[in-house]
Write a structure and sequence with these properties.
Layout lengths: L3 E5 L6 H12 L2 E4 L1 H10 L3 H6 L14 H10 L3 H15 L5 E5 L2 H5 L5 E6 L2 H12 L3 H17 L12 E4 L5 H16 L1
Parallel strand pairs: 1-3, 1-4, 2-3, 4-5
Helix pairs in contact: 1-9, 2-4, 4-8, 7-8
This protein binds cytidine-5'-diphosphate.
C-alpha cells in the first residue's frame, strides 16, 4: 500500500509532533524533511556539495535543533541546487510500501503534489515562539524574532516557497492542545484512507 501524507507549515507550528503521532497511529514511516536542510546547513562548506553528499550520520548530529541550525537551514534551503539534490530521496520515501508522512514546507506543493492527504499546520507567531521557547529555553524575544525571520525567508524565496497547497486542509493549532491537534489530524487522514 502506497499512501502519502504531506504536512507543511511555518516554524515550530507542531508539524513534527503531529507527523510523528499520525505516523505511529497508522503504522506509516515518518520523514522530517527539515532535518535534511538542517544537516546541510550544519555541515558547513559548500552547501550544494553538502546536499549532494549527505549521509545518514549527518542526520544524527546532536546540534541540529538549535536556533542557529534553524537559521542556517533556511539560508541553504533557498538555494535551488540544494533543494534539487534532496528531491529524489524525499519522493522515494513518500512512495515507500506501507505509507509515509513527510513534514516540511513544500511537501504538498512541490515534493508530493499528488499526496493523498495534505495538511498545513499553523499557529500565530507568538504561540509558535512560546512552544519553541519551551523546547529550547533562552530569550523569548530572540526566539520570536528568529521564528518570524525564518518564516519570511521561507515564504519569500523564489524556489519552492512555503505556501498552502490549493487542496490542503489548514489546521490552526493556536488554541488547540497538542492532543487536540493530533486528534484532528488523525481524523482527517482516517477520512481519506477509508
Ligand atoms: O522545526 P521547524 O519547523 O522549526 O523547522 P524545520 O522543519 O526543521 O525546517 C528548518 C528549515 O528548513 C526551514 O526554516 C526551511 O527553511 C527549511 N525547509 C525547507 O525549506 N523545506 C522543507 N521541506 C523543510 C524544511
Amino acid at each position: 500500500m502506497i499512501f502519502t501524507v504531506a504536512i507543511d507549515g511555518p516554524a515550530a507550528a507542531g508539524k513534527g509532533t503531529i507527523s510523528k503521532a499520525v505516523a505511529a497511529h497508522f503504522g506509516f514511516g515518518h520523514l522530517d524533511t527539515g532535518v535534511l536542510y538542517r544537516a546541510v546547513g550544519a555541515k558547513g562548506g559548500d552547501p550544494i556539495a553538502a546536499a549532494r553528499t549527505l549521509e545518514p550520520e549527518d542526520l544524527n548530529r546532536a546540534d541540529l535543533r538549535t536556533l542557529d541550525a534553524g537559521q542556517a537551514a533556511s539560508r541553504v534551503a533557498a538555494i535551488p541546487e540544494v533543494r534539487a539534490a534532496l528531491v529524489a530521496f524525499q519522493r522515494d520515501f513518500a512512495r515507500r510500501e506501507g505509507g509515509a508522512v513527510l513534514d516540511g514546507r513544500d511537501i504538498g506543493t512541490v515534493i508530493c503534489p499528488n499526496a493523498d492527504v495534505k495538511l498545513f499546520v499553523t499557529a500565530t507567531a507568538e504561540v509558535r515562539a512560546n512552544r519553541r521557547h519551551a523546547e529550547l529555553g533562552g530569550d523569548y524575544d530572540l526566539v520570536l524574532r528568529e521564528v518570524i525571520e525564518r518564516d519570511m525567508r521561507d515564504a519569500g524565496r523564489a524556489d519552492a516557497p512555503m505556501r498552502v497547497a490549493d487542496d490542503a486542509i489548514v489546521l490552526d493549532t493556536s488554541d488547540l492542545s497538542i492532543e487536540e491537534a493530533v486528534e484532528q489530524a488523525i481524523r482527517v487522514v482516517a477520512a481519506r484512507k477509508a
